[in-house]
Amino acid sequence: MFDSLAHRLQDVFTNLNRKGRLSEADVDAAMREIRLALLEADVNFKVVKAFIARVRERAVGADVMNSLTPGQQVVKIVLDELTTLLGTTSTKMVLSSRMPNVIMLVGLQGSGKTTASAKLAWRLRKQGKRPLLVACDVHRPAAIDQLEALGRELQIPVFHGEGAAAGDAVATAREGLRYAVDNMLDTVIVDTAGRLHIDEEMMSEATAIKQAVKPDQILMVVDAMTGQDAVNVTSEFSRLLDFDGLIMSKLDGDARGGAALSIREVTGKPILFASEGEKPSSLEEFHPDRMAKRILGMGDVVSLIETAVDTALEDEISQWDEERLKKGQFTFDDFLKSIKQMRKMGGIAAILKMLPGAQKAGIDASSIDDKQITRIEAIIFSMTPAERQNPKLLNGSRRARIAQGSGTTVVEINRLMKQFAEAQKMMKQMGSLGGKRGRGRPGMGDLPF
What we know:
This protein is of the alpha/beta class.
């Protein structure tokens, strides 16, 4: 997400920072580059025009021109304006005291409404809620089956119309609300039907469902890959349904990200959640300030820490044996647990995107191949329990057997052994410091690959 835009903007700022002083001509040249970068990222041209005007007005001020670090001042201005463009501050979805709360999801077909419904239900359950998914997409083939499959996977109840209510979206929504009341479920998530484009039938049905269940929140799911057209679609939905906020889906599949930068400015509706990936945990609260920093290559350490903490808390065994670490007794089983935690955090590429300066250092997160980690796991799984606990047992014949069993080579086994030895040294050094690292296993920074 935003990869192309991020690279372009960082190149512009690198050139600015090389200059000791800035003239208006320098600022205008930078604004032209930023304008082109935003347009190529599929940001709405009206949004780009207003954004550039605001940045330039501040950038040619005396505070910047007379500064000893004018390039840094311009970066700060762009960061401020980019954060404002994305929403200034994060807006949380606030549930009312009504029982049950009703959340209605709308959007075009293919935007990811059904998957977003399940992810939102999973998120709310983690917060202590008792959600119910209501399948009101009675038009798309297998839509109900898809929601039921997701419900079974996440262990969340799903209601769909039967008898007279079957095939009637409004009746299904009404019966689903009654089912939630009867079964003491405190949150109802209504998955509505979409179309390939906005039509009268689609909007009439959505309006009828809204009138029938009187939702506390209406959230529109927007596919980030739809680009400029997303602005027109959300504007029409806002006019007809007056939804409360947005869920941006498939952000991991869009290298441009112009829709996210345009929608907030054009519609005035906040982006509440963003989804990057297929896992239930991939639906996260949208933080404009953090996203702006990621676009400008400043990383997102706060989100990285939050993800690490959540991952550690989810793990059944979340605390290391401190005495073993002090003695350097780091085993291949521990190595596997670290890899497991890293996968829960989204893999190497996802972690690198949150680290400040990764792109500036020439590290392309999109080129990182998690298959390397899979090969390491295959090697470790091919070891016996005794070999995992005591790597000193791994002589030449054992390494040859492991290579054959894991589909790798002895050279790869030897390389892993060196990496593992480095990890052991780091564990011993951390143990000798005597300070408590807190709960959770070491993160990516502790692993030598």
